């Protein structure tokens, strides 16, 4: 979506993305049998069959009924699939559509959506300009696909998902452990990205003091050093809330890690394997990230720092769509879209580096920032308050950059994710930052 396209090209692109996205949803829901689909694998997650029908229901509400002006397919089930009405833990008790019904439902809705796509104007009103409503629904399905992957990770049983490991990081390269981002203003957010969501808008200038940021996300080896140094037993590194949660939840290491025979092991989609030392750590909550950073003598980056590191081009003064430029992601840029079932080793994807040389900002792991979820100056809820605005609260911490499980459609330099600071079933990691000392971050930096 880099430029205005012909109407026909846009329709063709939307149709292709609808197909590609549905293939992904199918892989995730056909990998297990019907019993597994209706079962709740964790109280933190919905049964997979709920996600599937909810994807169809949102698509029906927005594209069939609202955009298309068509008769409802199943208005009787709206309430069941309203995420605000039923917390995840309660969803298995609802009279949900069974697997066969859910599949028929999403496919009936999809047929109608292709019909709507054929006839509806893709301009003239904000919901339809550049196909926004279709882009929003595509991103919604991709986001639920990532959620379903988190459910698969929590599911107990033999592995059912398979993908090749990411390639090793290029041999013989060297890069500094942290990068100086000089002080100055940059443009945060976007007013031009056609499928950007309301919380990414509008573009606005932000002054950021000079800071250092880790070149790569924090690795498993670095995180294991914190664990082995007694980081989970030393209250000094934890905030009061973080320590209370650590104690109450009994946190001892990242989710799924176990120490056995002098070595760390993890369970990944049903397979038990040694924890790879050079992979970015994942499945850590915000409190754990905060404690690690304090132990390391650093802190989490603010959201503005993260975005400046990812998008600001000091040579031109403008903000890029992605760290590498304005082109859509390719497999050379970033580990996205479930091509692999894990993050790539730190130091991978030199072609995806930012102008200042910061790596792996997009893909691999969602990165916790220190910032609470809020609206940008000039924020306007669109197309509905429940998309973002009702979540604006310091209680939710912003995560940036997407993970290996995030599709390229639902990930860009401006994209904002948010979650509770205790969450760790998501594919979350982090990198650390520190203030530049006076002189370092001024006048163009080192
Ligand atoms: Fe949803």
Name the shape in a single word. Answer: globular
pLDDT < 50 runs, ≥5 residues? none
Please give the share of residues in helix. Answer: 25-40%
Please report the number of helical segments: 9
Cα separation of the termini: 36 Å
Strand sequence of the main sheet, in spatial order? Answer: 10-9-8-11
What amount of the residues lies in strands? 5-15%
Bound molecules: fe (ii) ion
**Structural class computed from helices and strand pairing:** alpha+beta
Order of helices and strands: HHHHHEEEEHHEEEHHEEEEE
| Average residue-wise pLDDT | 95
**Cα gyration radius (Å):** 22 Å
Summarize the main sheet.
4 strands, mixed
Instruction: Compute the number of strand runs.
Output: 12
Task: Describe, in plain words, how this protein is organized in 3D.
It is a single chain. The chain is of the alpha+beta class and 446 residues long. Helices cover 29% and strands 13% of the residues. The chain contains nine helices and twelve strands. The strands form four sheets. The chain has a four-stranded mixed β-sheet. Strands 1-4-12 form a three-stranded antiparallel β-sheet, with helices on one face. Strands 5-6-7 form a three-stranded antiparallel β-sheet, with no helix packed on it. A hairpin with a 2-residue loop joins strand 5 and strand 6. It starts with 6 loop residues before the first helix and ends in an 11-residue tail after the last strand. The mean pLDDT is 95. Bound molecules: fe (ii) ion.
